[in-house]
Amino acid sequence: MRILITNDDGIHAPGLKSIASVAAEFGEVIIVAPDRERSACAHAMTMREPLRVNEVKYLAARVKAFEVNGLPVDCVNVGLTIGWPDGCDLVLSGINNGPNLGFDVTYSGTVAGAMEGTINGIRSIAISMAILNSSETINYDLGADWLRENWDDLTHAELPPLVFLNVNVPNHPAKGTRYVGMGQRVYKDRVEMREDPWGRPYYWQGGVAVLDGAAPETDIHAVKEGYAAVTPVSLDWTDHAVLKRLQKTA
Ligand code: MN
Fold first, then answer.
1. 179 CA from centroid of ligand 1 (Å)
2. What does the domain layout of the chain look like in residue ranges?
3. Cα 160 to middle of ligand 1, angstroms
4. I need a labelling partner for 232 at 20 to 30 A (CA). Which of 57, 100, 122, 138 fits?
5. Which CATH class is domain 2-182+215-249?
6. How far is the CA of 219 from the CAs of 44, 113, 162, 168, 233, in angstroms?
């Protein structure tokens, strides 16, 4: 099995090492990751600058690794070009250093790595450590162990061509795994105004996620309850029910 690995936390991120060491137990691995952290870059790609690729030493000789001065989407496409121009069997993205729950999916560079794999016609999985309290230390071993235990299910699950899996693993031993939908994660105080030393305002985006009211059968709810959440996400963004209604009234 040929496995391409990327992330959005950069080539030096501990979560990348965790995911790669598990993948290496199951197949031939190539890591192609951004040369620095690129979190929240979403599905952006680099178009106006050349992409440079450097091979780096990583884990063991059997794992080839490259850093790219680009984004997760660039890494997947460059990785396929230099590694497996005919495609590979699996694209893994992660393990991210925080949750990608609900609407986070639309901002996430980790998820974008899986989206790009899917667009290339390859089974793709994004994995994130769902810490819900930023003061916690992330234990990536929990994500790695979960991935190892669920490897067969993930790699054999029947997925239509445009669907990938978004996985969030809790930062404590999971009670189990739930297959759930995408929740609606809303942030409170998203933009904070501050002042620079000259009294001019500037704005910092971040905010605290409001997880309360997470509906059952969603990723947010599952993680809150202590379960790993697996959400199938489709790249067909068409709302077919609304489309039919509009076509009828047109
Ligand atoms: Mn990240």
1. 23
2. 2-182+215-249
3. 27
4. 138
5. alpha beta
6. 24, 19, 20, 8, 12
**pTM of this structure:** 0.95
Q: Write out the DSSP string of 44-92.
A: ----SS---EEEE--SSTTEEEEEESS-HHHHHHHHHHHT-TT--SEEE
Q: How far is the CA of 168 from the centre of ligand 1 (A)?
A: 13
Please give the Cα distance from 244 to 120 (Å, whole number).
Answer: 29
pLDDT tens across the length of the chain (250 residues): 999 999 999 999 999 999 999 999 999 999 999 999 999 999 999 999 999 999 998 876 679 999 999 999 999 999 999 999 999 999 999 999 999 999 999 999 999 999 999 999 999 999 999 998 889 999 999 999 999 999 999 999 999 999 999 999 999 999 999 999 999 887 888 899 999 999 999 999 887 777 655 789 999 999 999 999 999 999 999 999 999 999 998 8
